[in-house]
Design brief:
The structure holds two protein chains of two kinds. Chain A is mainly β. Chain A has two domains: 30 residues, no CATH class; 161 residues, outer membrane lipoprotein receptor (LolB), chain A. Chain A has one helix and 15 strands, in the order ββββββββαβββββββ. The longest helix of chain A has 15 residues. Chain B is mainly beta. Chain B is 13% helix and 48% strand. Chain B is globular. The chains are: A mainly beta, B mainly beta.
Chain lengths: 197, 122
């Protein structure tokens, strides 16, 4: 798959499918390019389950985009306590709240990578591309779409080609985003989100 | 009995089917201030408010001002959206224990369970 991809910038979110032009060796192909499912709306409220080995956390995850690359989210428990509140703003990662026990460099790095993969990946050009492997910063992202041209899985492989993480999407009968699952292949950690209606 | 969030709920009915057991019907108010933040456009009753409500209902029945001193189990089994679930039925069991009361509560609406709380009031 070609590495040089030009696509339209995100705009009205009114349609799922848009055209783009793939340029390679002076040849032009038309391929379907789709909007990031998170960008169909600016705010989301998910039921959230996060697990690491035998540790589980469940609660609510509220997510708000201000534009394609800036967003803020918080995870709260069923009781209402804030567990995590993080923001991505103009390329900067801001910790609004994180418990002292989790405020360690290695954990922050993992959380940052996971939530970037969950909510930020695909913002390049504002689109997701069907059956394409995109190379970016020593990662390879392989995407698959369903019959309705909605993304159903994205697999993140490291520079060695070994699978590291995957995102799986589920949709309701109206083809609206319903569930998202992030799963690690190299250690037992998952994040499961389901939209609250 | 005083309510910490007076606009959060009201008690519609209290029945006593047997000694120490009570069936309480609660009306949840969807326009309560807490739903402006939890969450905007998607009201969900916070677990802390449901726990406080359970304690206040128990205090109303006992006609005392007790505190939830110990919580052995607090489980939120389903989200409580006051628009979809405006009424909850609390099945409370209150038995006198050392220096207080043992509390068991299951909140249901029709066949669905929403939360379970057990602990000690003192």
């Amino acid at each position: 798959m070609a590495s040089n991809l030009t696509a339209q910038t995100p705009n009205s979110n009114k349609t799922n499918t848009q055209d783009s032009t793939l340029l390679e060796s002076n040849l032009t192909f038309e391929i379907p390019v789709l909007l990031n499912p998170y960008m169909q709306d600016s705010t989301f409220l998910f039921n959230c389950k996060m697990s690491y080995k035998d540790q589980n956390i469940s609660g609510y995850l509220g997510l708000k985009y201000t534009d394609a690359t800036n967003f803020r989210f918080s995870v709260t428990t069923g009781m209402g306590n804030t567990m995590i509140e993080l923001e991505w703003k103009d390329g900067e990662f801001i910790k609004h709240y994180i418990p002292a026990d989790l405020d360690r460099k290695i954990i922050i790095k993992k959380l940052k990578a996971d939530f970037e993969f969950l909510f930020l990946y695909g913002y390049a050009n504002g689109h997701w591309t069907n059956n394409a492997e995109i190379k970016k910063k020593r990662h390879g992202y392989l995407t698959y779409f369903n019959d309705f041209e909605l993304p159903i899985s994205i697999t993140d492989s490291g520079c060695s080609g070994k699978k590291k993480r995957s995102l799986s999407f589920g949709y309701d009968e109206k083809n609206q985003l319903a569930t998202v699952e992030l799963k690690h292949f190299n250690f037992a950690s998952t994040i499961q989100l389901s939209i609250l209606e | 009995m005083s309510q910490l969030l007076p606009d959060f709920y009201s008690i519609s009915k209290i029945e006593k089917p047997s000694e120490g057991n009570f069936e309480v019907e609660i009306k949840l108010h969807a326009d309560a201030a807490v739903y402006q933040g939890h969450f905007p456009g998607m009201p969900i009753a916070p677990g802390a408010c449901l726990t406080q409500m359970t304690k206040e209902v128990a205090n109303t029945i006992l006609e005392k001002e007790l505190m939830l001193k110990e919580a052995h189990q607090i489980k939120f089994l389903a989200t409580v959206n006051p628009n979809e679930t405006p009424r909850l039925n609390l099945s409370l069991s209150l038995t006198q224990a050392d220096e207080g009361y043992s509390l068991k509560c299951v909140a249901k609406h029709e066949a669905k369970s929403y939360f379970k709380i057990s602990g000690k009031l003192a």
